[in-house]
From TrEMBL:
SUPFAM superfamilies: Cupredoxins
GO CC aspect terms: membrane
Disordered as annotated region, ranges: 33-71
The protein's name in its UniProt record: Halocyanin domain-containing protein
Limits of the Blue (type 1) copper domain: 100-185
Location(s), subcellular: Membrane
Length: 185
């Protein structure tokens, strides 16, 4: 019984897997083509103003984003920040105000604007809303750090003389996504 049955079964299995393979191959062919279309983007660099060499700017890639584009670098920094959309261009302003304790990240745990682009020599003034408990402003690289306070109207300022990308966070709420960035050019 089984002896006569098994060749049939096997051939069924074989042809099924052959079909499956065929299907996979077809799929792979499709997605390969699609990827090619999407990845070609030479004009993606306009998006972030980064040094954008050629391909790496594409968001999908795990590739070497670290090349120089501030955009890709910030994308990762802001991966757990729910109020980040883009870098707000404030180049040409002498002073820019960022509120501390703006709505976002599940409460008043955000900076607003989250990310700004300024010219060298610009002073950034952080102003506390008084909401969401105690906050501070602490640069990841140690370039500046404010007091930790919940006082409404408290201010802290820093003048950015050196070009670069400065990532900062509120120390107690960093893990909630209370993060910001200043891109100085
Ligand atoms: Cu905070």
């Amino acid at each position: 019984m089984f002896d006569s049955d098994s060749p049939t079964r096997r051939s069924v299995v074989l042809s099924t897997s052959a079909l499956a393979l065929g299907g996979l191959t077809a799929l792979a062919g499709c997605s390969g083509g699609g990827g090619g279309d999407g990845g070609g983007g030479e004009d993606t660099a306009t998006d972030s103003g980064g040094g954008g060499e050629d391909t790496a700017t594409d968001s999908g890639g795990g590739g070497d984003a670290g090349d120089g584009g501030a955009g890709a670098e910030l994308q990762e920094w802001f991966s757990n920040v729910d109020n980040y959309e883009s870098v707000v261009d404030e180049t040409g302003s002498d002073q820019v105000t960022v509120s501390v304790g703006a709505q976002g990240n599940g409460g008043a745990f955000a900076f607003d604007p989250t990310a700004i682009r300024v010219s060298a020599g610009t002073t950034v003034l952080w102003e506390w809303t008084g909401q969401g408990a105690q906050h501070n402003v602490a640069d990841e690289g140690g370039a500046f750090e404010s007091d930790l306070t919940a006082e409404e109207g408290f201010t802290f300022e820093h003048t950015f003389e050196e070009a670069g990308t400065y990532r900062y966070a509120c120390t107690p709420h960093r893990s909630l996504g209370m993060k910001g960035a200043v891109v100085v050019e």
